[in-house]
Amino acid sequence: MNLSTLASTGLSLHFIIQLHSDVDKGDGKVKYVLSGEGATSIFTIDENTGDIHATKRLDREAQAYYTLQAQAVDRLTNLPVEPKSEFVVKVQDINDNEPKFPDGPYLAGVPEMSPLGTMVVQVVATDADDPTYGNSARVVYSIEHGHPYFSVEPKTGVIRTALPNMDRETRDQYVLVIQAKDMVGQMGGLSGTTSVTVTLTDVNDNPPRFAHKNYQYTVLESLLVQSVVARIKAADADIGSNAEMDYRIMDGDGPGMFNITTDEDTQEGVIMLLKPLDFETKSSFSLRIEATNRNIDSNFLSLGPFSDTTSVKVTVEDVNEPPVFSIPLSKMVVSEDAKVGTSIGRVSAHDPDNSNSPIRYSIDRNTDLERFFNVDALSGVISTAKPLDREANSVHNLTIFAIESHDPTQIGKGITLITVLDVNDNAPVFAIDYETLLCENAIPGQVIQTISAVDKDEPLSGHRFYFALAGPAAGNLNFTLRDNKDNTASILTKRGGFRRREQPVYRLPVLIVDSGSPALSSTNTLSVRVCDCDSDGVALSCGAVAYTATGLSTGALLAILGCIITLLVMVLLIVTMRRRRKEPLILEEERDIRENIVRYDDEGGGEEDTEAFDMVTLRNLNVIRDPNVRRDVTPDTPTFFHYPSASRPSYKSLPDNVVFREFIWERLKDADVDPSAPPYDSLQTYAFEGSGSVAESLSSLESLSTDSDQNYDYLSNWGPRFKKLADLYGNSDSTTVLS
């Protein structure tokens, strides 16, 4: 089979090749069959003529080669008349793809002040066309936007600086447009573009500069140490590490007063106060400060110097300061036997301001709660106000206030430590409460106890105690004392044969004397108990031995038992008599009617309710007593008012307090002469309301017994609610009401 031709890309049904078999005589007995890549879908064959056509536009970039098989077969039997023939269809390239930048857009940086021709970045464009066929894939580069600052090499795409010494502080960013064109840039070629953003990176090409040559700041003299006095900054057009700088104080008239450091966040110079300010001592300070770049680039030394200086004046403003003690912590001593009012020492303070205000002193009583001390308000002399006791408090820590007279709000504080010196005012005593046991089998000269002493005083040379038996015990025949010369003493037996039955306990007075001046002493009693001990000297039992009750006859025991029974009977009788009901001191008929308690639940009938109380009797206290009441004993009872018995006034005519007293005296006499009263004291309670005000009682209870000229006829006009009152008071004839 012969291959007639090769085909290139073209339109639909584009003729590619013709196949012809030598067997084909043109009589229609042979037909052509096509198989392989793209057969029937892309390529078709005319079965009569063997012409192969492309039915679609071919894309070399998608597939550059197609392998096909063609065969001639008998039309009737479909049997091959020749073997298969294989052929390759190669798609020829045309310039149908523009150049592209796969890595675009680009970001690049170049140091500012770079020399001419410094490489910035290289751009690369690719073309999908066949580089082996024609110029379709041959690309050249050009810069469309970015002149005159940058240039690009046409063949390599390397971008370089086109101007020297570009300044970042003037312009820090440029956007370039780079074009790539195929066909070696000839007319008709395709092109693509990309952007390149070029940033100028900073270099240290700018020195720091202060905005002013002189700065002035004002601070209060009360400013605390380590506080910020001021902040200054030298401007630097650079950024980052190229703008970092250090500050220092070159000179000034306040050495050691100030320090300056760099704030790493703001690159400011922070002036700090190192010592307290005092307006009265120095009211202003002058400093000379230098700022220097930390990272200096040697390539740009010609643009220096990379430092600058300025002058700073700090003015101190006066404030009203509290008084200052000449000695903030003063120490004083006083003897604990100092008398009240003894001067101990003197504190002194002054006003640091120019006004020099007078000072008044006082003690912070929170530090002297028991007020042991006083301070003279004008002189500052501290004296004792109460007796001191070193053993209770050996050191007093006082806070002294110094107050300005012109401005009491200004208060200074000072500390005074007062140490109380010891005097010998405490006698020595036993160190502990000793429990001394003495075995009955003790031998003469045996040590039964070692004693020591304590003393609340603290002499400078230490304690030295002397021991001895006191008074009459010094010559006793039972015990002796030996002073060990080391602030202890030993108690020894003088004899043996101690017996609990004879004497279970011995009390030994011990005299202890200290070495103070004057020496003090005390007598302490040491109790020695006699004990029954085992062979090792361990006490088994101590104290008195109980005696057996011998020689007590049966009759004596019965007599003791009888006495006990008699006592029990007498106690029972007394208890029984005390439980008897007491008869009232005042007879029932003599009870004051005011002691009655009447309880009822209805609303009450007003003046008509006269059944429960005799209103006249309730008001009149001169109740007629029964003349037949026995008066065996008439006590001599004084009265507060003396008047003849015949002309004795009524209670109502007396003052309230006298009425009540006379009433109580009457009741007291009745109780004293009452033959039925018990032989012991009794309590009787009375309550008396009194006769009331000058206007007398306002109660309606008494209105029936008083003569009144009041006319109550108007009550009849008040309606049915007041009908009962109108019936009671409306009729002037009171006898009708009482009948």
Automatic annotation (TrEMBL):
Its main location: other. CDD domains: Cadherin_repeat. Signal peptide: none annotated. InterPro entries: Cadherin, Cadherin-like_dom, Cadherin-like_sf, Cadherin_CS, Cadherin_Y-type_LIR, Catenin-bd_sf. GO terms for molecular function: beta-catenin binding; cadherin binding; calcium ion binding. GO terms for cellular component: adherens junction; catenin complex. It is found in: Cell junction, Adherens junction; Cell membrane. Residues 21-101, 102-210, 211-325, 326-430, 430-540 form the Cadherin domain. SUPFAM superfamilies: Cadherin-like. One of its GO terms (biological process) is cell-cell adhesion mediated by cadherin. It is a single-pass type I membrane protein. The keyword Chloroplast does not apply. It holds the Pfam family CADH_Y-type_LIR. The chain crosses the membrane at residues 556-575. It comes from the Eukaryota. Keywords: Calcium, Cell adhesion, Cell junction, Cell membrane, Glycoprotein, Membrane, Metal-binding, Repeat, Transmembrane, Transmembrane helix. The keyword Repeat applies. Cadherins are calcium-dependent cell adhesion proteins. This is Cadherin 7. It comes from Oreochromis niloticus (Nile tilapia). The lineage of its organism: Eukaryota, Metazoa, Chordata, Craniata, Vertebrata.
